[in-house]
Amino acid sequence: MMTFEAAINNAHLTMRTASKKVMRGKWQGIDVSKKPDFTAYEICHYSMIVRLITESLHEYKRSIRPNLPWADDHFEERVCGQPINPGIEWKNWPWGVNADKFRDKTGLYDHNYQERYWPKFAGATLNETFVAKDYESFANQVPPHHGIRFAYGDLNDVVTELAKDPTTRQAILPVFFPEDTGYQPGRRKPCSLHYHFMLNGNGLDIQYVLRSCDLIRHFRDDIYLTVRLLLWMLKQLRQAEPTYWNGKVPGLFVMHIANLHCFANDMIKLQEMAA
């Protein structure tokens, strides 16, 4: 089974040697049909599996090489417990200037990870919120969101589900919601679809499914942030049910990407890196 270093190198090799050149016409809801730089090299249905053999963040920083310190700071933002929007870490992302273009006139994003991890009170305010404490008063003023028949769940509910039913196959945190379905001109849609936590022997596995991923700008960070989410989940479970979960360890990291891509200018750099 591959290490993260080998899996990432394999993704780069596959992109250089087996990808197809495609112009899809739109990127993040924006018409780019007349911008050749947005021609993409694509691999469809790309998967990787890595066994997690340590809980050392230092080792994962070394082997995955995410954008640091941004990835660590943004992870803490994601698990802050409130659906803050826009947050603050988007500005510190290496491509934050581009991210700024997708905020609406009120300064908000049409979605972000904080809202999707903690959706119960998402949208309770149309004001910008930057840290968790900014949102707490708004969350206390409105009832939580409700689905067709049941109340919305969030990341803490997934913790509770695994704590109460450790062998469940139903511990899923969705990121792509019904409101994202259908033709919506000009709107961004989440690249991540869901995270699935499942006990496999003595190890807790995480499966991360994405519809789309940029090999250069997101791939390493997406991997690292998901590894951190699994380690975070184990920590919460050990606190909730120590007798059962203290003996459990990280299991498999499973990632499936429907469309892994690299833009034309980035492909030139990727080829140069391998020369």
How would you describe this protein?
By secondary structure, this protein is of the alpha+beta class. The chain has one domain (4-274): Thymidylate Synthase, Chain A (2-Layer Sandwich), CATH 3.30.572.10. It contains 10 helices and 9 strands. Strands 1, 4, 5, 6, 7, 8 and 9 form a 7-stranded mixed β-sheet that branches. A two-stranded antiparallel ribbon has the order 2-3. A hairpin with a 2-residue loop joins strand 6 and strand 7. The longest helix has 22 residues, at 219-240. The two termini are 27 Å apart. The model has no long low-confidence stretch (mean pLDDT 93).
SSE string, helix = H, strand = E?
HEEEEHHHHHHEEEEHHEH
Number of helices: 10
Query: What characterizes the major β-sheet?
Result: 7 strands, mixed
Provide the CATH superfamily: Thymidylate synthase/dCMP hydroxymethylase domain
Second CATH tier, the architecture: 2-Layer Sandwich
Q: In angstroms, what separates the terminal alpha carbons?
A: 27 Å
Give the low-pLDDT segments.
none
Whole-angstrom Rg: 19 Å
The CATH topology name reads Thymidylate Synthase, Chain A
What sort of overall outline do the alpha carbons produce when their principal axes are compared?
globular
Overall average pLDDT: 93
Q: Work out the number of β strands.
A: 9
Number of domains: 1
Helix fraction, binned, reads 25-40%
Which band does the percent of strand residues land in?
15-25%
- Which structural class matches the secondary elements? alpha+beta
CATH class: Alpha Beta
